[in-house]
Write the structure tokens for this entry.
Amino acid sequence: MMRRRTATLSCAALTLALGATACGGPVAAGGGQKELGGQTLTVAGVWSGAEQKNFQKVLDAFTEKTGAKTQFVSTGDNVSTVVGSKIEGGNAPDVVMVPQVGVLQQFAKNNWLKPLSDTTRKSVDANYATVWKSYGTVDGSLYGLYFKAAHKSTVWYSPAAFEQAGVKPPKTYEEMLTTGQAVSDSGLPAFAVAGEDGWTLTDWFENIYLSQAGPTMYDRLARHEVKWTDPTVVKALTTLGKLLSDKKLIAGGQKGALGTDFPGSVEKVFGPDPEAGMVYEGDFVAGIAKDQFGKKIGEEAAFFPFPAVTGGQAPVVSGGDAAVVLKDGKNQKAAMAFLEYLSTPEAAAVWAKAGGFLSPNKKLDLASYGDDTLRETAKSLINAGDSVRFDMSDQAPAAFGGTKGTGEWKLLQDFLRDPSNPAGTAAQLETAAAKAYRN
């Protein structure tokens, strides 16, 4: 999605990443002299646009290294439905890039997946924090390799808006609200909130909840070992509701937020006619700010870490896409080789150089990233180690945490519309969660 200065790779590094001919002429796709020549690997994932284009560079690198041709199939947001239909129709992809832990677990319990190879497991043990291995493991078997990560504890702001308001990036959640008031007083609403996309509201809740309740309670709620009616949930909703109910802080108020999708929220801060000073979302905000609106990352668009709520620690919530191998895929050898490749820092470097990407692979040289802001974000994610917590809604069954117009997405949109009854919203969330986890 983004990036300023382009990182360079040495000929030796390119040779490792792309094969022996990397520094000479290009290798024809599917070259028969390579190990997997003649095979075609089909990879399915949610990506489109710039993300799909950049992932294609990784696929092309794999082709040059192995000779396997590749084909990418975009699933849209309903990964489980699309993949299930393809399996039933005898047209299963070989590899799926799964964006939700809950969906990965569903695939494993449906007996759709093959455990990853010893080579991949050894790479994960050597190159990843333990938490990433645990999120890819179901019933003791490693099925998912987390290739692409997101840092979802970043608040993006306009330095010009902060300068006009005479404020600096806040250190606590309470300071963030005070800063927002100052930005609003200077003539620009504080936050653009993408309420039309329910997943952004789950991210708001998760950061607040992780900071207030702590990682142990976060893990228990993610597994539905505590009910959503727990006082910690009501407390987090109350904290979030205080922000959402303040029309001075939210661009367009609740109605305006509910009519704003995620790209639109970024445009409200970094577009040609700014309507807000800040937008909370993950590191991928920078890609839109740079690619669509020409902002210089670090100068015209900057971020501060999502600040700690009183009494808690600053949260580090992440998301990510895990590569899995389907049992019904027709090219098992190529699929396993592809995941072995994805587990290396060389593969991560290809997309890191292209931009719009963070890797949980701690062996990836930070110099591979194209600008200082990305390097800072990546370093924060890696340094968090096992204190990183995966997006809670992505760990839930899709019916609760990952479906438009239902479950957590819809109920938090309803809460944005009227944040006056946190306990009532918690009760509704529990009803929906209980049904989804039971099924």
User: Anything to note?
Assistant: The CA atoms of residues 246 and 253 lie 8 Å apart. Residues 154-316+394-438 form a domain with the D-Maltodextrin-Binding Protein; domain 2 fold (CATH 3.40.190.10). The two ends are 37 Å apart (CA to CA).
